[in-house]
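Hi, here's the filled form for the chain we discussed.

Project: internal
Contact: R.S.
Residues: 267
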Amino acid sequence: MKKLLFAGLLGGLLGVCLIPSLAMAQSAFDGTWKIDLHRVQMPKKPDVILLQNDMYQCKTCAPAINVKADGEDQSVTGHPYFDMIAIKVVDDHTVRETAKKAGKVVSTSTTTVAADGKTASFEFTDSSNSNAEPVTGNGTMTRVEKGPAGSHAISGSWRTTTVNNVSDNGLTMTYKVEGDSLHMSSPTGQSYSAKMDGTDAPYMGDPGTTSVSVKQLGKNMLQETDKRDGKVISVAKMTVAADGKSMTITVEDKLHGSSSSFVAMKN
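And the returned structure, exactly as it came back:
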């Protein structure tokens, strides 16, 4: 259920750009950075799911999803990372989701609700935003509200509490400032070269992000704005610590109306 339950979370978490300031000799942000999963503040806004009468709804997905939960591929529209999903009810506490694009599996995930119904665990493999090896990981979530009587245990509102064991390719990015331009690349195949004056530049290798702009807000502080077909989908602000070893990033997910923050460490 990772792609459906946590759309936007890992997208913000794994795909945010850690942007350098203008270079003199060498930018303090130049180099490779890795997100520290122990220093993450998850979105407070919960995800809302309903699985009842053989139908699955992800009410907080953007756009919302409403498909049969029969284990068969179902067409969905408006999602750049997948065009088919299959929701399989394994048992009364476990659900498995498979997403495809153009007939190819791009993500799989399994979510299992604890016996007391208060927490759930999930694990995922996701190549929907990767042009190389898939990103893998697992995590936990806590129930905020119960689902209606008679619905599957996955139904209700859930808040992600942890994301663990994410593969390095989903946490690592490399940056280089040359003149007035920033160059970004990642192990999953995303890249861009953007002037740091707030003008748009092409974002390569990501089906859900078509352009990016970078703007300096102050000393050791910058802002990146990601867009999809001209519409702002996320805004990230970054502040580099005085010692240059860590960077605090806050992300506003405009699609889901949520925010998160985390820390990246310079390798």
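Let me know if anything looks off before we file it.
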